[in-house]
Amino acid sequence: MKLRILGSGTSSGVPRIGNDWGACDPAEPRNQRTRASALIEHAGTRILIDTSPDMRAQLLAAEVGMIDAVIWTHEHADHVFGIDDLRQIFHVRHRPVPAYARPATEAALREKFGYVFEGQHGYPASVSLATLPDRMAIGAIEIACADQPHASITSTGLRFTVDGKSIGYATDLSGMTPEMRALYAGVDLWVVDALRRKPHPSHPHLGQVLEWVDELAPQRTVLIHMDQSMDYHTLRAELPLGIEPGFDGMEIAL
């Protein structure tokens, strides 16, 4: 099983509009971050996590023109608003793209993007949306999920397992529940939101993530959803062994 980080940035990306790099070194390509998204792949099956506003550029960079399913973690714009680019996947597949979301996210997506799932003005539906259950499989990839607090809404935490190897994907969370602990405990790879060093009301800060890593004991941890205060090389120098900043285009195989 392979994970590719398509985007490792926040809703603003790095740099922010106005060429705002913050503390990030502009000369380091790994500091250039598009909005958070990822791709899980095994034995020819590809699962896209979220459709960021940068989805088209992300999939072009990954040289990916076909996916087998989409899972949305939640309905916020930086994780959803590339949804129209799924129409091109529909054209390649010649049938709607299967997609999954938890009930609240599913309802929000249907309300905002009904034309994507139902068609409109002679255009066919490009996506077939279904409710994401607690457990399912896509191809040989087993998927488990848990609802995560994310300020006033919930997001979806994900665990992907193949042949006893597991990847946890945790973005846009503001706390850790018993269900989440059970989901992420002991994963081989944990990809987790670490927005910045200062506390934030709807995202974890770096110190919080480090405490969770001590508790959950993943084999390897990669940080995502980082803002312009999180310079790549500064983080590499200060993080403990087994924890590292992610970057756009990073690929990890288990």
From TrEMBL:
Coiled-coil residue spans: none
Pfam families: Lactamase_B_2
InterPro entries in the cross-refs: Metallo-B-lactamas, RibonucZ/Hydroxyglut_hydro
CDD domains: metallo-hydrolase-like_MBL-fold
Gene3D superfamilies per the UniProt record, alphabetical: Ribonuclease Z/Hydroxyacylglutathione hydrolase-like
Residue ranges occupied by any Metallo-beta-lactamase domain in the UniProt entry: 34-225
Signal peptide: none
PANTHER family with a match to the protein in the record: HYDROLASE C777.06C-RELATED, HYDROLASE C777.06C-RELATED-RELATED
Protein name in the entry: MBL fold metallo-hydrolase
Protein source organism: Sphingomonas lycopersici
